[in-house]
Design a protein that fits this description.
The structure is a homodimer of 406-residue chains. The first copy, chain A, is of the alpha+beta class and 406 residues long. Chain A contains twelve helices and 16 strands. The longest helix of chain A is centred in the C-terminal third of the chain and has 19 residues. Chains A and B meet through β8, α8, β10, β11 and β12 of A and β8, α8, β10, β11 and β12 of B. The structure holds N-(aminocarbonyl)-beta-alanine (2 copies). Chains A, B: Pfam families: M20_dimer (PF07687), Peptidase_M20 (PF01546).
């Protein structure tokens, strides 16, 4: 079994990099803090005897050799980037759980047939650069390298330039890196395991998501002198659209979730009627047909709100991540490991996207969830217990060992 | 009569400072561009033989002496700051019309009994620093100097520090500057004169306004994993409030106008449920009792939206500018001047606040409006004709002359 204290201490050490303002982290993808976090991870892996490779999307692979050099590695991993007001566990747990697996194998002098690998994927969060999981997406061939490099943040800085700047644009071509099986450990980020009092979620798949960007354009005018019937107020229209988007989730209960996370008002002046509003829209559902219907509902709500009042609306679907099912053998490996260790467990579908979703297109894949307090994530208050995290790490160790023997 | 071309050329020259992106101006209060605009104005006034004084709020006075040194000046003026996407005429016209009056008096060697003065008031727009008209408010004793100096922009920079930085924190104590009568020429910024085909608006008063800041606080959480019934989405609540605020105007038709001009979403990340939203609210009505009732409607809408869903709402009334009536004698001077010159004119109430509103508390005051195209202002497309502007300037000249004789 893994070393619970060592895993916890490493998590707390990493959390010192890019501290938030309320006990969590702000370690945005490809920021200086992201570089520091990567450097620390690489140093720890080298100290554990691993060799390091980095691909052109900045994905990092730390390898512990197996006895059969011809075999592809059994790989685990997740991401080190966080939300602007993120927690200490989202992503980081999956990376440091992988490191703890390697340290445990070293402690006990265990030799595996296949190499064992820990990976760090660039810009999983999709917060600084949209879409989410873009670098595992390039790895899996869903996006091409140019697309990956050209994603820009709100200031126009691109992933390609920022990778160069922080020194993590590697040589390897993304995807030219065979993987025998992939496992990702992660906090659930939702309330189900806690409510069901289970320690381990055996993740069988993930719901689909569609991300949109909308720009509503009305007309700037004076807040004091423009009669109500002469206004084209982009924020009034945007606000009705936010309400309609919320209602789309309620109309597709119980599984639909919809969110407007980002909104920029222009010119954003107290006494000028807003001339334009940019907003992002995130629609999710486990069923693909329902998700498509939700998109139609969004499009008709947008037209219904904007057209009659002369607001021009551009609505672009910038990302589609279909619902996915993980590999049955890998899922079984997780379930067996949880059962053997005696952890209470249940099957679960992920509400969030994860790098494992894209890796599942090119390698047999599964995920392991552990509970987090109140199901809260993407919040600095995100919390998980050392015991649950160690349990997830133990399941990871044994699932990987099962797949790393010939 | 004034020199139409010279007035127009001066307006176009000033508009080169702080150009916008669509033909208008971005010359925010106390920015480097504001300094450049002030410097140009001061130079022009000195070339016209005026003496300059500046007060501690950065208000500038350019004086042309009269024959009776014991008399207080007849003063005109407005502001040089603009909205982030402002026009070439809002404020600037009133300042340069004043300069054109002085140049015209010089051309014809006219001596006045009282001195004639042109003033520039700091931060009239209220866009970079709230509230609007803050420096004429300090001049009129509505705000104290500390309040004026401590107003901060969104980056925390204060009026006091920015005045110091651009070299316009003068020595004079605001208000210790007697004014015999005050006239402000301005574009209407609304559609009424154009619709009624009148060249001159004889402004009899201004409607009241109440400005608010609201902060709604919910709870950040993951957009994919947080069930709809566990969300405290600050943006969903804020959006309902925007809609309710719009409805308050419609419920108090025909004269009420309400605007949410500014909104900041936090953490503003695509896949995080917004934890908090800051927004500004601008309510206006010519009748004070109705304006108060609109505030009550706002407060109850805010509580009705936020309380049931556990969103904490702070709603602060940061500014109240009551409806005002201008001085009957000054209003008559404007009406007479317009009539004598044969300009079509009508009485009108200002929908916008103006420095004249505060100056009217300490000196007999009136205003002169000229039409602007489609009534559009606070928009780079703001437009007015050289003829109408010269007409307004002529009315200003003759109203000032009437009040500058013993
Ligand atoms: N796990 C996680 O928070 N991923 C970010 C992408 C998403 O919003 O699902
Ligand atoms: N004239 C003008 O636009 N003033 C700004 C203050 C207001 O919004 O009324």
């Amino acid at each position: 079994t893994v070393n619970q204290d060592r895993l916890w201490d490493s998590l707390m050490e990493m959390a010192k990099i890019g501290p938030g303002i309320a006990g969590g982290n702000c370690r945005l993808a490809l920021s200086d803090f992201d570089r520091e976090g990567r450097d620390l991870f690489v140093r720890w892996c080298q100290e554990a005897g691993c060799s390091i490779t980095v691909d052109k999307m900045g994905n990092i692979f730390a390898r512990r050799p197996g006895t059969d050099p011809s075999m592809a590695p059994v790989t685990t991993g997740s991401h080190l980037d966080t939300q602007p007001t993120g927690g200490k566990f989202d992503g980081v747990f999956g990376v440091l759980a992988g490191l703890e697996v390697i340290r445990t194998l070293n402690d006990h002098g265990v030799e595996t047939t296949a190499p064992v690998e820990v990976s760090v994927w660039t810009n999983e969060e999709g917060s600084r650069f949209a879409p989410a999981m873009v670098a595992s997406g390039v790895f899996a061939g869903v996006f091409d390298l140019d697309y990956g490099h050209s994603r820009a943040d709100i200031d126009g800085k691109t992933i390609g330039d920022e990778l160069e700047r922080i020194g993590y644009k590697g040589d390897e071509t993304p995807g030219e890196h065979p993987i025998r099986a992939f496992f990702e450990a992660h906090i659930e980020q939702g309330p189900i395991l806690e409510a069901e009092e289970k320690t381990i979620g055996v993740v069988t798949g993930a719901q689909g998501q569609r991300w949109f960007e909308a720009t509503l354009t009305g007309s700037e005018s004076h807040a004091g002198t423009t009669p109500m019937n002469r206004r084209k107020d982009a924020l009034v229209a945007a606000s009705k659209l936010v309400t309609a988007i919320n209602e789309i989730a309620l109309a597709n209960a119980p599984h639909a979730v919809t969110t407007v996370g980002m909104m920029q008002v222009s010119p954003n002046s107290r006494n000028t009627i807003p001339g334009s509003v940019f907003m992002t829209i995130d629609l999710r559902h486990p069923d693909d047909a329902t998700l498509s219907r939700m998109e139609e509902e969004l499009r008709s709500a947008c037209a219904g709100i904007c057209d009659p009042v002369g607001i021009a609306a551009e609505l672009e679907n910038i990302w589609y991540s279909p619902p996915i099912s993980f590999d049955p053998d890998c899922v079984s490996a997780v379930k067996n490991a949880a059962g053997t260790a005696g952890y209470g467990n249940m099957d679960i579908i992920s509400g969030a996207g994860h790098d494992a979703c894209y890796i599942s297109r090119v390698a047999p894949t599964a995920m392991i969830f552990v509970p987090c307090e109140d199901g809260v994530s993407h919040n600095e208050a995100e919390s998980a217990t050392p015991q649950d995290l160690a349990a997830g790490c133990n399941v990871l160790l044994h699932a990987m060992l099962e797949r790393a023997s010939a």
